Amino acid sequence: MPAVSKGDGMRGLAVFISDIRNCKSKEAEIKRINKELANIRSKFKGDKALDGYSKKKYVCKLLFIFLLGHDIDFGHMEAVNLLSSNKYTEKQIGYLFISVLVNSNSDLISLINNAIKNDLSSRNPTFMNLALHCIANVGSREMAEAFAAEVPRILVAGDTMDSVKQSAALCLLRLNRTSPDLVLMGEWTARVVHLLNDQHLGVVTAATSLITTLAQKSPEDFKTSVSLAVARLSRIVSSASTDLQDYTYYFVAAPWLSVKLLRLLQCYPPPEDGAIRGRLTECLETILNKAQEPPKSKKVQHSNAKNAVLFEAISLIIHHDSEPTLLVRACNQLGQFLQHRETNLRYLALESMCTLASSEFSHEAVKTHIETVINALKSERDVSVRQRAVDLLYAMCDRSNAKQIVAEMLSYLETADYSIREEIVLKVAILAEKYAVDYTWYVDTILNLIRFAGDYVSDEVWYRVIQIVINRDEVQGYAAKTVFEALQAPACHENLVKVGGYILGEFGNLIAGDSRSSPLIQFDLLHSKFHLCSVPTRALLLSAYIKFINLFPEVKGTIQEVLRSDSQLRNADVELQQRAVEYLRLSSIASTDILATVLEEMPPFPERESSILAKLKRKKGPGNLHPDLDENRKERSANGGTADHSSTTSNAKSSPLSFVGDLLAPASTAPPTNRPRPVSSSYLLQAPLTPIPPQASAVPVLLSAGPLFQVAASPTPSTDLLGLGSTITTQNSAPPASKGTSLLVDVFSENIAAFPVETPVAVGPVADENFSRFVCKNNGVLYENQLLQIGLKSEFRQNLGRMYVFFGNKTSTQFMNFAASVVCQDTLQAQLNVHAKPADPTVDGGAQLQQILNIECMSDFVDAPVLNIQFRYGGTLQNVAVKLPITLNKFFQPTEMTSQDFFQRWKQLGAPQQEVQKIFKAKHSMDTEVTKAKIMGFGAALLDGVDPNPSNFVGAGVIHTKTTQVGCLLRLEPNTQAQMYRLTLRTSRDTVSQRLCDLLSEQF
Amino acid sequence: MIGGLFIYNHKGEVLISRVYRDDIGRNAVDAFRVNVIHARQQVRSPVTNIARTSFFHVKRSNIWLAAVTKQNVNAAMVFEFLYKMCDVMASYFGKISEENIKNNFVLIYELLDEILDFGYPQNSETGSLKTFITQQGIKGQHQTKEEQSQITSQVTGQIGWRREGIKYRRNELFLDVLESVNLLMSPQGQVLSAHVSGRVVMKSYLSGMPECKFGMNDKIIIDKAGKGGVTNEAGKSDLGGGGSTSGKQSIAIDDCTFNQCVRLSKFDSERSISFIPPDGEYELMRYRTTKDIILPFRVIPLVREVGRTKLEVKVVIKSNFKPSLLAQKIEVRIPTPLNTSGVQVICMKGKAKYKASENAIVWKIKRMAGMKESQISAEIELLPTNDKKKWARPPISMNFEVPFAPSGLKVRYLKVFESKLNYSDHDVIKWVRYIGRSGIYETRC
């Protein structure tokens, strides 16, 4: 916008603005504006024609008033008039007003569009530019609709001026951003790509922005741009700094264009053509070389521009991830920045290195900078940079340097910023576990972790250490000794007490031989911490005590004394009280044999994804894709490379442990996460390893232990051992092969292949025990056995229906070759169409599979279709057949009608074959509300006040099939004395009456 | 209890800052400026809560007075104090303006020390304040010990508002009944809401310690007297000069407040208003009535929209009081639409002008007798706009001054007894004046 100065005239505007600025108060300003508005209104009244100059002046004033925050509701017409002026300044003010004040006003929009169209076709480059700028500034949907086709034409027309092309490209970019659906690819796309060859660098810059955006939308159309971009880039890179004249910025040749071209190239994989590839590599090398050259200027702009190109080049190199030499060079280049004075550069260098570290080629190169990074961690002043340093350390860690990095991170933890402590803790825990060669080191590390930053150690971390200690025999003794020593510190963190309590409870016997850690000393040590702990920890300690009784009969008296004390037996907390009572009774009643069985050592945990890793991912949040990417890359490199360690993380990753989804959850007690399940405290009591059905894991054990455990079955939430406790339910179903195999090996995928024999199980009888439950409802659990749970969710409308079948894998093993099909036997085939959509052939352990069935009812039917399920579990073929609860009444549409209507129709359906009556004994209690709900669930409309006897139920509805519709009336008369029902059904079709009567009578 | 008191100019600069309690920090000064004076949206509530601190403000022309507290105080008390503060300042140096405040800042601090002690309001009676806070400063050599002790005994005594030994050659008494009448009327002439808030302001120049008794046509007293079968003798000395011709004798007062000199116990038991008056000017009572209000003017609007670009407005005003009385300073404000591009006005009486800066036609009449009517007609040209919003038609408002009390209040008597000095009720010269002004007097159109 040219300055509205004295040279441009418009004295009135200058006076007005200075008046406003001189206003003492807001009120005075408003008064002045009101006066001016009235003046402008009287000028715009229309009786006398205004010349272009005054129109421009008043429109300017209006614009100024609007920008001050006042509403302007007139003057649009005058502004539109200005658009058709031939003077640049007038046209410009007109467009300015329109860009700022336009709203989707129908009559004006067409006028504006018309003016813009005129200008676009005017051949006058300034006017065309003004019009294009207006389109881009407004960028509304209406604009896009009107000009989405026009702008590309201008862009690729041969005779368009360069400056107009530039504007057109940017305008199109804007339209594509606001309404991408309206910018259609056409034959112009090919020509747009050739704009990269344009003489004018401005056009190229604008076009590159456009192409980058469009290429993300449809990569195929712009594939040719890669070679052109490479060519252009190489020309820029190889040019002398003076070649490009206007486009040289502080001795850097066209930095913006270079950055944009490099971005464009990042939309595509490395070019396949060797020549182009070579040329690109050459370019990148040149950029890296230039970075090494001494700076041509001391100015910060020079280094900024240079570094911008360099970083973009490095991210392209990382994106391609194919040229080892380049990657290493990039890494070295970044290494120099690690100690740069500029904080931003250090940050960027660390960030880029993080991604470099995950590439197999540059991983080693990154590792050479470990000292610098550790130094940065210690000496850096900016917390965000320190955060990046932590990330980088995490990324560059592998088995060779794990000990060093973990030690550094641990020592840094003491001084770390509070905001990143928890993340560091998680990272340390993961690294320690992942790269542990020696598990004593792992135990030491985690204990240190708890000691340094106990508050930031989440539950997952200490669950994990316990899981690992329990699963690995060789560290148990060491762990017991270490925690025992750690607990001797006068003040130790609660998490340490938890770990200590658990480990000593399990493995205290391993160190009991030493007189310094005799059972009594162990107990006293634990008990000295007891009173300082929160309730969940105390509960855990109580469990540890009862385990002590089993391990060391000699301290039984002491422990019973503790349990008997009022502070335990009469504790206000229900959980603690219950544990104390139960454990006391258990220890005094049960024989040593029973004690030994009940309190046996915990069995190994089944292997699964480290919950810590999941937590770290969650912490990063869904918005940050980086860690995922990081993981994937890592996996890739791991698979191609050597390490077997990463299989720990990838093992169960695709199936994060969750119980069968909420729908299938038995009695809906188990939430799908690892959160506390309402289990009795006695869950801790170990279940014997004899195979028992998994769904009955805990309860039979408790019952067998004697009547005193009846109490224990009450659902009191225990929060302590959740991550651990929840696995108990599944452990028994794991194949015995998992026992004793290495902890960190993906057991199942290999073992399945090893089973050579397939023993198909004979097709069992069709299961239909739950069938009748679905007559009156649409959702629920249809079938369940030890392996599989089938849940249903269905909806019906007229003669169509859709059923969602959920197959829940209750085991921790994958089901292979999973197939489910629906069979309609003989006559049913013509009566009912069931179409099953294909589902995945595998169901992961603990996961759920969904299959959709589409159902169409052709005519009335009696039978029900059968769902056949086949899968391979642990090498054996399993077959399950379940009757699908698709019954005639599902296609019932309720109809409301008055008493009179009802009885009229009732009489019409009086023919003897139309009526079916059944008298039967009630199977359930005769609750009115339940009956009502059942009739409604059956599908009929429940008609109140129709029957003269209020205790009778009357319903009506229409059965929809594809061929016919069958009206249907029903009447249910309960007799409470005799506990009998009489059900009468009248429909226009005898078969329907019979079938409905049979279905409904089953329900009461 | 008030924690502090600040006075700002229109720019938000602090002119006076007095902090009484420790819980109010310096940042409170800025908080008010940032959140109220410089607020992006105009703050309309007189009470603002910022960070658990309450700010009570009043604005006098360009000056902001803000009382600050962290406690849960009686807001009405605080505002009463602020208004009193304005009165006191006005009586010392006239108009409250930035310049006056700057010129008198020593005096203001002195006053603040006197009328507010640890945040508790103290004696703020101008008359008595002037005895010991003088604008020239207290001249020590002229003040005898006796006078000093007199001040002390007065300030600490039972009748803090009047000193002893006042002598006037002529015992005179001025009584003003000032009322402002508020109205909102529908276009059809239906009263939507109306109330009168009035004040009885006295100026007394009486010798000694006179005991006064004030009587008016309060409904409760009249009814009581009527029931008792005894007509009050004092009724004869009716000083009323009311403009209403309606035969109603009494008015119903909705609520009233009194100056501190009025004996409230007596008012509660006998409903009689008796007091020892302060010397000079003071406000005896304030009251509000909502029933049987005499509306001095009736506005009859007629607005006709002729097409999209023209509006015809005709407004008739009728005066509704005794023809012998004259209303003064009449001003009718007719709002115009926001897209007005031109106005033609014709009026028989007075002057009318379209004021673009206020978006209104202002019609001024100097004087108008009762039972008359006058009219104005205007043609307003409109500019077509692309806004579909209809004009909101704000109400027509009016300002005036009439020489009677629209509530119908009449002073029945004001008796003065001074037992010690030898003057009686008859010797006192009494002046009574009624002024009715418009408050918010609006008619929808």
Report what the structure shows.
The complex is a heterodimer of chains A (1004) and B (445). With 1004 residues, chain A is of the alpha+beta class. Chain A contains 43 helices and 16 strands. In chain A, the strands form four sheets. In chain A, strands 11, 12, 13, 14, 15 and 16 form a six-stranded antiparallel β-sheet that branches. In chain A, helix 6 runs antiparallel to helix 7. The longest helix of chain A has 21 residues, at 300-320. Chain A is extended. Chain B is of the alpha+beta class. Chain B contains eight helices and 23 strands. Chain B has helices at residues 27-37, 75-93, 98-103, 105-115, 126-132, 145-156, 219-228, 264-270; strands at residues 4-8, 14-19, 47-50, 53-60, 63-69, 116-117, 120-121, 172-185, 191-205, 211-216, 255-258, 273-275, 280-289, 297-306, 310-319, 326-335, 340-347, 351-355, 360-369, 373-382, 396-402, 411-417, 429-443. In chain B, strand 18 (351-355) and strand 19 (360-369) form a beta hairpin. The longest helix of chain B has 19 residues, at 75-93. The model of chain B is unreliable at 229-247 (pLDDT under 50). Chains A and B meet through helix 2 of A and strand 17 of B.
Tags for this model:
heterodimer; A: 1004 residues; alpha+beta; 6-stranded antiparallel β-sheet; 43 helices; disordered N terminus; B: 445 residues; 9-stranded mixed β-sheet; 5-stranded antiparallel β-sheet
